[in-house]
Design goal:
By secondary structure, the chain is α+β, with helices and mostly antiparallel strands. It is built from 3 helices and 7 strands.
């Protein structure tokens, strides 16, 4: 176990591992990169977390408007996304989802890719 303040050890992610995406009531879940912020990846959470647990990890507050949706590493990989555990100092459960790459580099995260990303998920309480 890493000491307090250190970044957790990176884990190899098996295809059956569940992942959680945090969202807020009344808003669509994020499915595109915010390129204006320099994003190169989408952020998910390792494991199946409750909406409240996801809110605490992402916003550091107990947000009553928290929602979550779920997928597996394998579903994202089958849709050609690259999935990596990428722990941060503030979130040891952080997972990065990168767009597929081709010989020229990462593909553009366009509307079709956003749709493919959304199709990998189920909502609160739904079975995978």
């Amino acid at each position: 176990m890493p000491s307090k303040g250190n970044v957790a050890e990176v884990q190899v992610l098996g295809d059956d591992l569940e992942l959680t995406q945090y969202g807020e009531e009344g808003e669509a879940f994020r499915n595109e990169l915010r390129v204006e912020r320099g994003e190169t990846e989408m952020s998910l959470i390792l494991g199946r977390q409750t909406p409240m647990a996801a809110a605490l990890l992402v916003t550091k507050t107990a947000a009553p408007w928290a929602h979550a949706r779920y997928t597996t590493v394998g579903k994202l990989r089958r849709a050609a996304f690259e999935v990596r555990h990428s722990p941060t100092k503030g979130n040891a459960l952080h997972v990065s989802v990168f767009p597929p790459t081709d010989p020229q580099g990462p593909r553009e995260w366009d509307g079709a890719m956003a749709s493919a990303f959304d199709q990998c998920f189920t909502s609160d309480g739904e079975d995978q």
